UniProtKB/TrEMBL annotation, chain A:
<feature type="region of interest" description="Disordered">
    <location>
        <begin position="1"/>
        <end position="20"/>
    </location>
</feature>
<dbReference type="InterPro" id="IPR008274">
    <property type="entry name" value="AldOxase/xan_DH_MoCoBD1"/>
</dbReference>
<dbReference type="InterPro" id="IPR052516">
    <property type="entry name" value="N-heterocyclic_Hydroxylase"/>
</dbReference>
<dbReference type="InterPro" id="IPR037165">
    <property type="entry name" value="AldOxase/xan_DH_Mopterin-bd_sf"/>
</dbReference>
<dbReference type="InterPro" id="IPR012368">
    <property type="entry name" value="OxRdtase_Mopterin-bd_su_IorB"/>
</dbReference>
<dbReference type="InterPro" id="IPR000674">
    <property type="entry name" value="Ald_Oxase/Xan_DH_a/b"/>
</dbReference>
<protein>
    <submittedName>
        <fullName>CO or xanthine dehydrogenase, Mo-binding subunit</fullName>
    </submittedName>
</protein>
<feature type="domain" description="Aldehyde oxidase/xanthine dehydrogenase a/b hammerhead">
    <location>
        <begin position="187"/>
        <end position="264"/>
    </location>
</feature>
<dbReference type="Pfam" id="PF20256">
    <property type="entry name" value="MoCoBD_2"/>
</dbReference>
UniProtKB/TrEMBL annotation, chain B:
<keyword id="KW-0479">Metal-binding</keyword>
<dbReference type="InterPro" id="IPR012675">
    <property type="entry name" value="Beta-grasp_dom_sf"/>
</dbReference>
<dbReference type="InterPro" id="IPR036884">
    <property type="entry name" value="2Fe-2S-bd_dom_sf"/>
</dbReference>
<dbReference type="InterPro" id="IPR002888">
    <property type="entry name" value="2Fe-2S-bd"/>
</dbReference>
<keyword id="KW-0001">2Fe-2S</keyword>
<keyword id="KW-0411">Iron-sulfur</keyword>
<keyword id="KW-0408">Iron</keyword>
<protein>
    <submittedName>
        <fullName>Nicotinate dehydrogenase subunit A</fullName>
    </submittedName>
</protein>
<dbReference type="GO" id="GO:0051537">
    <property type="term" value="F:2 iron, 2 sulfur cluster binding"/>
</dbReference>
Length: 715, 155
């Protein structure tokens, strides 16, 4: 739930429109301050998730202020001082935070130059800014940000008006810059929340129930290692000790001594599709366009199924909390500290002013993992130990099994076309649990422990943000192709046996796979090249551009039919409003499917850090390859059973495809964010490459030998 | 109760039980942060260290096993002032996103380059196969290892 989501839900206000998050955090000193020592501190509300955002924001600030990039210091977000930018999600950070910082820094520069002009009589338009020095036409230095550093100058609200540099004048924003956070990570210096060591800190490990929704019935007594003690609040159970390995060993012993009132609450894995079809649901129409169409010559109806999948962060969720008096201070890697604070006020039943949150980097999260949950775990335990900092680290099993999962999805597509493949009708029905169970939105807290603590709260079912805010299950469910009659429906399952929430791309992954598979099949039926078939159905020039570029990169027209090798392509504009990306995949179909190569072309509008954007686009592509070839959350009627890397395998080095990625430069266009645009097209391109190699449409995820064999049987 | 060994070239004594994982000794009493917990089960490589120059998973290795031996963690590989060629190459190619996987990967790659100073791309992939990276930084990491090989190993 980024600001785009919030605005879509709550509507705007009548204040003069300011760019991005500046509109709702209007004071300049919420965004930047000048230090007399020669540095500029920027204070965005968006946070570093390993995606490189703090570097991009520093570049934007350095550009507008005309100071060298090394002078920029980015302060991690904290409550209550940082601007509330809701959640760092949805590939919106450059739009929301970047545009706020661009505007705020341009205005700050104008204020400082104005003061220098007033003091010296040199007209403001004659003053140049050179690495923070204000320079007169004759070369005299009239002052600098540092010599004039005065907090009062920025203690004002931003005003409308375009003072930012034109794209053609940018030197720092738009040029690749090395990531500010990477050196510490390459030299093993403390930077992650996992690395925090506070005086007197104790380590805690959670003990999870024997089944979903189970309640703690009894706990047998017995010795614990290292003087470990027990924390219990309802069914929230933990072991804590001064040394981390003692907490871990003690938690294992507690797990063996605990008995739980457990029941079957999950649908059996093999019956998940039937369960989805019959589960309680809430239907809605996403988009409907009626038209009279001639009788079709071709009809394709396909059902696409994807099981639950999960984030799989390499580092597990972690938080540190200290309770002092009636206030709790928490360090965590939440994507949205204000939203988390809102849920903590409900779960802890205390005012927001008494909860102080600091963002500290964690491992990449790729959406809503356990980062918020572990903050409540730590807060609850810390409440029982006033004055003692408590560090909670989730185990690998918790990370894979107890964090929110991305919901299982069914997408039914029915398309009608003329004999030459020209589309006449398209209907798409999306069925899944909600894709967002993020905190801070509803009356009930969504945090894991909130439903397990004594006097706890029922788990609210996940929702789908409205399409204007990016959508959830329905993200990218509207095909980008010209089609006279269109109907897109969504059904949100309102029973939630497994907690679900946002994972990089949300519903786009399955919707794009479904749409691009059916387009491919139509082209094949009409004996038309899949590239040409798409191009003639695309009205959007930027979609055509990325698709043509990716096809050129892969030398698509000259591809040869080779035994056991397949090539496929796909295109999508992320969310229908974000970045454009097209992918060509080459796969080898042996005992299993291996993706050998990917070619990607993306248009993300203005690019602040080209190297960083390419890193994100390629990273998304490799993650997508892993997701569709290998990944499914395994479960029985009680629990998630895929709780190790052996049971939830992800792509390894020897199976990673070679990737060639290019950006189409649009310096004048608004920035659109690069983090999520490549996933849908890559998955769809791989599916189409499988069809090219094997002549079979894979409609069940993951694309394993079993699911391909099943598709062959069905064909 | 103490385990004595050489850590990144210096003699240390960690007040910890012999059976405690080496990872706990490194991150606990020895105060280092570069060696990371990822799975505790030899399945991800985040915790990889070198013991007498050989790769070892510190998440499962008992501390007592390294008594009298020499342990290298990422902190011992190089420093910002004196980086290992791998660290230089990883920075040059921006080989990483969240960076959580990198410590183990750097150490594993250092063994590869020591044993095979001019590896092929396939050699690098095979050597790094026990390591997971969820951010999809693999290809940059492979290129960075190859670049470090080209820069040459320190004597
Ligand atoms: S933490 Fe040791 S291999 Fe994963
Ligand atoms: S860079 Fe994030 S896991 Fe490898």
């Amino acid at each position: 739930m980024n600001l785009a989501f919030r605005n879509a839900v709550q509507g705007g206000d009548d204040k003069p429109k300011l760019p991005g998050s500046l509109h709702v955090n209007r004071r300049l000193d919420q965004w930047l301050s000048i230090q007399p020592g020669g540095t500029v501190t920027i204070t965005p509300g968006k946070v570093e998730l390993g995606q490189g955002i703090i570097t991009a924001l520093a570049q934007i600030a350095a550009e507008e202020l005309d100071v060298a990039l090394p002078r920029l210091v980015v302060r991690p977000a904290s409550t209550p001082g940082s601007p509330d930018e809701a959640v760092t999600s949805g590939s919106l950070s450059v739009q929301e935070s970047g545009m706020a910082i661009r505007h705020a820094c341009a205005e700050a520069r104008a204020i400082f130059v104005g003061v220098a002009a007033q003091k010296t009589g040199v007209p403001r338009e004659d003053i140049a800014v050179q690495d923070g020095d204000f320079v007169a036409p004759d070369g005299r230095v009239l002052g600098s940000y540092w010599s004039m550093a005065d907090a009062a100058l920025l203690a004002v609200e931003a005003t409308p008006g375009d003072r930012a540099k034109p794209a053609s004048a940018r030197r720092i924003a738009g040029t690749s810059a090395p990531r500010l956070d990477l050196p510490a990570k390459i030299f093993g210096q403390p930077r992650f929340v996992h690395d925090m060591r506070l005086p007197g800190m104790m380590h805690a490990r959670m003990v999870r129930p024997a089944a979903r929704g189970a309640t703690l019935a009894a706990l047998r007594d017995g010795p614990l290692p290292g003087g470990a003690t027990i924390f219990r609040d309802g069914s929230v159970l933990a072991a804590l000790a001064t040394q981390e390995h003692h907490a871990e060993a003690a938690a294992a012993r507690l797990a063996a001594r605990a008995s739980w009132d457990a029941a079957d609450t999950l649908p059996e894995e093999h019956a998940i599709e039937a369960w989805m079809d019959s589960a309680p649901r809430e239907d809605s129409i996403v988009l409907e366009r009626s038209a009279e169409t001639p009788a079709p010559a071709r009809r394709i109806a396909r059902r696409f199924f994807r099981p639950f999948i999960t984030h799989g962060s390499i580092g597990t969720s972690c938080a540190v909390a200290t309770w002092t008096g009636d206030t709790v201070e928490i360090w965590c890697h939440s994507q949205g500290i204000y939203n988390l604070r809102a849920d903590l006020t409900k779960a802890l039943r205390m005012p927001a002013d008494n909860i102080i949150l600091h963002h500290v980097e964690g491992a990449g999260c790729y959406g809503h993992n356990g980062a918020d949950d572990v903050a409540l775990d730590a807060a609850l335990i810390a409440r029982a130990h006033p004055g003692t900092p408590i560090r909670v680290l989730w185990s690998r099993a918790e990370e894979l099994a107890w964090g929110p999962a991305s919901p299982a999805m069914i997408v039914d597509v029915a398309a009608e076309a003329e004999a030459d493949g020209t589309l006449l009708r398209w209907s798409q029905q999306v069925l899944s649990n909600g894709h967002s169970g993020r905190p801070g939105r509803g009356a009930l807290p969504t945090l894991l422990a909130a439903s397990m603590m004594a006097d706890g709260f029922p788990v609210p079912p996940a929702i789908n943000p409205p399409l204007a805010g990016g959508g959830g299950a329905q993200r990218n469910a509207v095909p980008p192709y010209r089609v006279p009659a269109l109907k897109v429906d969504m059904a949100r399952i309102t029973a939630m046996p497994l907690r679900t929430s946002a994972l990089r791309g949300l519903g786009a992954l399955v919707n794009v796979w479904a749409i691009e598979s059916v387009m491919d099949e139509l082209a094949a039926q009409a004996a038309e090249d899949p590239l040409a078939h798409r191009l003639r159905h695309l009205d959007d020039a930027r979609s055509r551009d990325v698709l043509s570029r990716a096809a050129r990169m892969a030398d698509w027209p000259n591809r040869q039919k080779r035994d056991g090798i397949g090539m496929g392509l796909a295109v999508s504009r992320y969310k229908g409003s974000g970045a454009w990306c097209a992918a060509v995949a080459e796969i080898e179909a042996g005992e299993r499917i291996r993706c050998k190569r990917l070619w990607l072309a993306a248009d993300v509008g203005e690019v602040v850090n080209p190297d960083g954007s390419l890193n994100q686009i390629e990273g998304g592509a490799i993650q997508a390859t892993s997701l569709c070839l290998l990944e499914a959350v395994r479960h029985d009627a009680r629990n998630v059973t895929s709780d190790s890397w052996e049971t939830y395998p992800i792509l390894r080095f020897t199976d990673v495809p070679r990737v060639q990625a290019e950006l189409i430069a649009r310096p004048e266009a608004p920035p659109l964010g690069a983090g999520e645009c490549s996933l849908g097209p890559v998955i769809a391109a791989i599916a189409n490459a499988i069809a090219d190699a094997l002549g079979v449409r894979v409609t069940r995820w993951p694309f394993t030998p079993e699911n391909i064999a099943r598709a062959m049987d069905d064909a | 109760m103490s385990v004595s060994f050489t850590l990144n070239g210096a003699a240390v004594a960690a007040p910890i039980e012999d059976e405690a994982p080496l990872l706990a000794a490194l991150r606990g009493p020895l105060g280092l942060s570069g060696t990371r917990y990822g799975c505790g089960a030899e399945q991800c490589g985040a915790c990889l260290v070198l013991v007498d120059g050989q790769p070892a998973y510190s998440c499962t290795l008992h501390s007592g096993v390294v008594a009298g031996r020499s342990v290298t963690t990422v902190e011992g590989l190089g420093t910002p002032e004196a980086p290992h060629p791998l660290q230089t190459a990883f920075l040059e190619l921006q080989a990483g996103q969240c960076g959580f996987c990198l410590s183990g990967i750097l150490l594993r790659a250092s063994v590869l380059l020591r044993d095979k100073p001019a590896p092929t791309e396939d050699d690098v992939r095979a050597a790094l196969d026990p390591h997971l990276c969820r951010c999809g930084s693999h290809n940059r990491i492979i290129r960075a290892v190859l670049r470090a090989a080209a820069i040459g190993q320190p004597a």
